[in-house]
Amino acid sequence: MANHVGVIGAGVMGEALIAALIRSGVNTTDISFTEKRAERAQELEARYSISHLSLQELLSKATTILLVVKPQDMQATLREMDGRCDQKTLLISFAAGKTIKSIADELEGNHPIVRVMPNTPALIGLGASGYSFGPGVDEDQKSFLRTFLAATGVAIEVPENLQDAVTATSGSGPAYFFAFVEAMVDGAVALGLAREDATQLTIQTITGAAALLGQSGDSPKTLREKVTSPNGTTAAALASFSQSELSEVVAKAMQAAAKRSQELG
């Protein structure tokens, strides 16, 4: 379908999505964005050869709009948009917690709306996202969305009532991983390694393990069992995790993330 994509919100995630649009085959002449910071706007124009427009110009031109604003800014953004874009314009929200209904309630008419929960590895095309279609999204729009999101990494369709679970899993998940890496580095330093050496060893261990998990075809459980010799060093570490109730700690953290996502709606 003929499609001009407008991006509202040109921060880190907004830029990641612009890059994904281009990777997915959208021509740079068919992408525009709004940005209040002049220096940032110039940077993105130069980097991607896309157009920086005012909100009014973008709304009058775009047939698809990516809403990449913070949840707390969504209501104000939608009020600025209300009545200014065609009813057929596809709205794709990337704001945590914001439901399709809450977006629709701020706008006149019945725009087709999609809710997406991305994560930051989309920056390098290795993201994981969940998406949910609202009523009125046609087959061409669905096809565009799937092709576009495939350029960000893995994307799966989920019922909207599971979007809070997606947020707690993949949306916030990278931060859990980074926190664990930090803890491993600190643990290695406490054991005597220089921080630079500890960081290098930890990052390579984590990235190597992730690659093995992705390529081996084995489950996390199987891989864990393969590396754990009875009464060995790994078994001792895993026993300590178990005594500290690691599974319960992680589950509780994810429940907190899901609850906060619900509150943002």
Automatic annotation (TrEMBL):
Alphabetized InterPro entries for the sequence: 6-PGluconate_DH-like_C_sf, NAD(P)-bd_dom_sf, P5C_Rdtase_cat_N, P5CR_dimer, Pyrroline-COOH_reductase
N-terminal signal peptide: none
Pyrroline-5-carboxylate reductase catalytic N-terminal domain mapped to chain residues: 5-97
NCBIfam families for the chain: proC
The protein, known as: Unannotated protein
GO BP terms: L-proline biosynthetic process
Domain Pyrroline-5-carboxylate reductase dimerisation intervals: 160-264
